[in-house]
């Protein structure tokens, strides 16, 4: 995440925080520029300090165990794997620590699973430094943090009559969504099985469930729908091809 040129993140105004030791932040991300940008923005405030960074899940697991950060900033695609389950693992291992997800994974699909797994905040990597700092301050006060668009979408769903999913993908389970997303990224069933630590037959079962829920007839249609979503944000229409 690049820091905007000429912008400066304001420090805490709270006297109690100003007198306390800086909040210790661990960054778990495999993109060096993101780590650099976050580090500069955080330390510029004078209220946060980087206590460690990791670019792989094994290193991240060891870092959090040893350092016990106040807040962990996590990319869900750390190490090329699906990070919701790892997020849940981090939450169990260090429940006193806060977790802010900062990722490119679509907030409209992944945020609800992340919060259920133990996240305290969820932002996309398009967020600016000021938004990240504001989210950190919010979760340190015991609140949940999310983008304005995600908050508005959640409010719209809460107020909608009947409470039906906004899109067909909202009706998928966490595992189904994981498989669908990996298919869209061009992964084969064997590769997905390895990424999710599942058997190849289990992946086949998930593919059949996805076809049924999305009204698709063949595996080729499923893979094309997944690619269209990942590349262009086009959500499949339920039943479109099932007639």
- Along the chain, the helix and strand elements come as HEHEHEHEHEHEHHHHH
User: What would CATH call the architecture of the largest domain?
Assistant: 3-Layer(aba) Sandwich
Tell me the helix content.
40-55%
Calculate the terminal CA-CA distance, rounded to whole Å. Answer: 45 Å
What shape does the CA trace take? globular
Can you give the mean pLDDT?
Answer: 83
Given helix and strand content, the structural type is alpha/beta
Which consecutive residue ranges, at least 5 long each, have pLDDT under 50?
Answer: 2-18
Question: Which CATH class of the largest domain applies here?
Answer: Alpha Beta
Rounded to the nearest angstrom, the radius of gyration is: 19 Å
Q: What can be said about the biggest beta sheet?
A: 6 strands, parallel
Strand order of the largest sheet: 2-1-3-4-5-6
> Helix segment count?
11
Please indicate the count of domains.
2
Strand share of the residues?
5-15%
CATH topology of the largest domain: Rossmann fold
CATH homology superfamily of the largest domain: Response regulator
Number of E-type strands: 6
Task: Describe the fold and architecture.
This protein has helices spanning 15-19, 32-45, 57-67, 84-93, 107-117, 129-140, 148-159, 174-184, 189-196, 200-214, 219-232; strands at residues 23-28, 48-54, 71-74, 98-103, 121-124, 145-146. The chain has a 6-stranded parallel sheet with strand order 2-1-3-4-5-6, sandwiched between helices. The protein has 11 helices and 6 strands. The relative contact order is 0.09. The chain is globular. The chain folds into 2 domains: 15-154, 3-Layer(aba) Sandwich (Rossmann fold), CATH 3.40.50; 168-232, Arc Repressor Mutant, subunit A. It is 51% helix and 12% strand. By secondary structure, the chain is of the alpha/beta class.
């Amino acid at each position: 995440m690049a820091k905007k040129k000429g912008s400066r993140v304001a420090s805490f105004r709270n006297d109690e925080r100003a007198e306390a030791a800086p909040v210790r932040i661990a960054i778990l991300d495999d993109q060096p520029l993101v780590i650099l940008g976050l580090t500069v923005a955080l330390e510029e405030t004078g209220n946060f300090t980087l206590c460690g960074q990791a670019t792989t899940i094994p290193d991240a697991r060891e870092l959090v165990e040893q350092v016990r950060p106040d807040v962990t900033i996590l990319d869900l695609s750390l190490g090329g794997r699906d990070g919701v389950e790892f997020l849940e693992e981090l939450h169990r291992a260090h429940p006193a620590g806060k977790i802010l997800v900062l990722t490119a994974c679509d907030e409209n699909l992944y945020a609800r699973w992340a919060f259920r797994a133990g996240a305290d905040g969820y932002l996309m990597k398009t967020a600016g430094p000021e938004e990240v700092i504001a989210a950190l301050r919010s979760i340190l006060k015991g609140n949940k943090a999310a983008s304005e668009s995600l908050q508005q979408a959640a409010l719209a769903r809460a107020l909608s009559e009947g409470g039906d999913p906004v899109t067909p993908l909202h009706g998928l389970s966490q595992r189904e969504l994981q498989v669908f997303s990996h298919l869209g990224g061009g992964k084969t069933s064997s590769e997905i099985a390895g990424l999710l630590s599942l058997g190849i037959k289990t992946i086949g079962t998930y593919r059949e469930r996805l076809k049924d829920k999305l009204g698709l007839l063949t595996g080729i249609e499923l893979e094309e729908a997944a690619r269209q979503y990942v590349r262009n944000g086009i959500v499949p229409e339920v039943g479109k091809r099932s007639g």
